[in-house]
Specification:
alpha/beta, TIM Barrel, Rossmann fold, FAD/NAD(P)-binding domain, 3 domains, five-stranded parallel beta sheet, 27 strands
Length: 639
């Protein structure tokens, strides 16, 4: 792939080898006290080696009270400089430039992380957050000074520039947005006052680091789904002000519960907020960085059409650190696709997860430990099952030099990925199946479709290693009368293998049940979801769940959580509601989405009959895509 995307460009005096920027993404790979870890260096070093021109180190707190995440990187003290210098060297050795994003969480900081009450322009809490303390003028001046001191530390450490985080609902954005800033003094009211903090931060940083040092800011082009939030016209005026204050570029993003970058769309749309960058570019002369699900092809078009000067890529670089190199060498089909599951973002808000993970890249944050190295002895490996776990195991084992054969009982590869890509807003999952199929073909993995394995067949094949990824069998709920009706599995509904009536009762309100219900509701069917648990759609990423439930209700789906299914009659399902009321749900079709059980029969039949046998994926227990890919990757490394 050739074009303007891979031409050199500049931000101020900083020269870049191409126009691809890695946007700052919080990973929590740092140490507990905010220092750079070996993990951080390996993670960012891999993306620099992968061809990115400029890496922006994730949100790095400039003041202790602004710390918003556990293990978040810090730059609020000179003690952070040595580690930052080592990180910079790890990036520079691959020919990339590196900046640090200066950050203060404001009301999105957490007292359990920082040990202090959050602060903000006004004492208004984020949804579900703590009530912050309103900043005094003296405290605002202290924070401005902390930004300047942090920028000077960045310059001393060797960073090529700094980005001021003025977006995504953090402190500076809290001042910019009329939704969160209700002040009546010089820092509130009119936009010129609300932008005062950002302007004064820019000016203080420029005074500290000198005019020649690259400084830019990230702002929202618009706030979506926030009543009285920032409009595009206000963002354009802010852009004019920050340009006059001396920034060398503007990175245009978006924020809010309805932001297109946060919600999935019916089909994958690259560069979903490119119009924001385009409009802001019309009113300023400094380079514009566009962001928002930008693929290499979309990035080339955006730059060619003059909508932006550089493009920032985030989650897709978590999925594949080599994305830029692969695009530049016309290997687009080899790019591991981000499926926009939002599980990486969900990890940031989970107290049980110490750092970000990726559904399609098991090596994220483990780049050194999980490096794929050649095997010392090539072996005959048989993989049974062509779902995500089986395909990933076959891919990695083949990359290491093993002779791999894969048997799949269906007439196509993909396993449950095929069904997962059918419901509304899930089309991007199909790209993972296509990618894995392509890689198996390129690696000469011998794939046999329509071949259901038995223990005798496997023994006769004489493999040295067997990897079983045989998946699950559906769970049939124990409901009196169910055996007398033609209940159908959700998977058969999605693949159009079964007749469905107009009145549908879906038993199971997890991810599969809710997605199947929405799929049917969009076909104008009357759908009711019945779930024994008190809440619906618990398998949906937390950052998408509210949107998903809202869409179900918009499409007329009836949600009945906390119910007990008593029996099935010719009229439908007799249930007891969570309030204790007994009622009949009329239905001419019952769809089962009550879960699944591991299918380990083949493993039990094979034990002791082959030299090396491994079980992965759903045949061990019900798994997510992320679990399946991770297990497949790890087994591929081990064999």
């Amino acid at each position: 792939m050739k074009g303007r995307l891979f031409e050199p460009c500049q931000i101020g005096r900083m020269e870049l080898r191409n126009r691809v920027v890695m946007s700052a993404m919080v990973t929590c790979f740092g140490t507990e006290d905010g220092c750079v870890s070996e993990r951080t260096k390996n993670y960012l070093g891999a993306r620099a080696q992968g061809g990115v021109a400029l890496l922006i180190v994730e949100a790095t707190y400039v003041h202790p009270c602004g710390k918003a995440y556990a293990n978040q990187l810090g730059i609020s003290d000179d003690k952070f400089i040595p580690g930052m210098s080592e990180l910079i060297q790890a990036i520079h050795k691959h020919g990339a430039k590196v900046a640090v994003q200066l950050h203060h969480g404001g009301r999105r900081a957490k007292s359990e992380v920082s040990g202090m009450q959050p602060v903000a322009p006004s004492p208004l809490a984020c949804p579900g957050g703590e009530i912050p303390r309103e900043l005094t003028i003296d405290e605002i001046e202290e924070i401005i000074a902390s930004y300047a001191e942090a920028a000077l530390r960045a310059k001393k450490a060797g960073f090529d520039g700094v980005e001021i985080h003025g977006a995504h609902g953090y402190l500076i954005d809290q001042f910019l947005s009329p939704w969160s800033n209700k002040r009546q003094d010089d820092y509130g009211g009119a936009l010129q006052n609300r932008a005062r903090l950002l302007i004064e931060v820019i000016e203080a940083i420029k005074d500290a680091v000198g005019e020649g040092y690259p400084v830019w800011c990230r702002i929202n082009g618009k706030e979506y789904g926030i009543e009285g939030g920032t409009t595009l016209e206000e963002a354009k005026e802010t852009a004019r002000m920050v340009q006059n204050a001396g920034v060398n570029a503007i990175h245009v993003s978006a924020y809010g519960p309805k932001a297109p970058t946060n919600l999935t769309s019916p089909t994958f749309v690259p560069a979903v907020i490119e119009e924001l960058a385009e409009e802001i570019k019309k009113v300023v002369n400094v380079p514009i960085i566009a962001v928002g699900r930008i693929t290499p092809e979309a990035g080339e078009r955006i730059i060619e059409e003059g909508k932006a000067d550089l493009v920032a890529i985030g989650k897709a670089l978590l999925a594949d650190p080599e994305l830029v190199n692969k695009a530049a060498s016309d290997r687009l089909e080899d790019i591991t696709p981000c499926i926009i599951c939002m599980k990486c973002l969900e990890d940031l808000f989970s107290p049980d997860v110490p750092s970000v993970r990726c559904s399609v890249n098991a090596a994220l944050g483990k780049e050194k430990e999980y490096a794929i190295t050649p095997t010392k002895k090539s072996e005959k490996v048989l993989v049974v099952g062509g779902g995500p776990a089986g395909m990933e195991a076959a891919r990695v084992a083949a990359l290491r030099g093993h002779k791999v054969t894969l048997w799949e009982k269906e007439s196509r590869l993909g396993g449950q990925l095929v069904q997962a890509a059918i419901p509304p807003y899930k089309d991007r999952v199909a790209s993972l199946t296509k990618y894995l199929q392509t890689q198996l073909k390129k690696l000469d993995v011998h794939v046999e479709l329509g071949k259901e394995a038995t223990a005798a067949m496997i023994v006769e094949f004489k493999p040295e290693v067997v990897i079983l990824a045989t998946g699950v069998k559906p769970l049939i709920p124990d409901i009196p009368g169910l055996e007398k009706v033609q209940a159908i599995q959700a998977a058969d509904v999605l693949e159009d293998k079964a007749e469905v009536g107009n009145r549908v009762a879906v038993i199971g309100g997890g991810l599969v049940g809710c997605e199947t219900a929405l799929f049917l509701a969009l076909q104008s069917r009357r759908v009711t979801i019945l779930e024994v648990l008190p809440e619906m759609a618990l398998g949906v990423a937390s950052v998408l769940r509210a949107f998903f439930l809202e869409r179900l209700l918009e499409e007329g789906v009836t949600l009945l959580p906390g119910i007990k299914c008593n029996e099935v009659t010719p009229d439908g399902l007799v249930v007891t509601t969570k309030e204790g009321e007994k009622k009949t749900i009329e239905a001419d079709t019952i769809v089962l989405a009550a879960g699944a059980l591991p299918d380990d029969k083949l493993y039990q039949d094979l034990k002791g009959k082959v030299p090396g046998i491994h079980c992965i994926g759903d045949c061990v227990e019900s798994r997510t895509i992320r679990d399946a890919i991770a297990e497949g990757y790890c087994i591929g490394l081990q064999v």
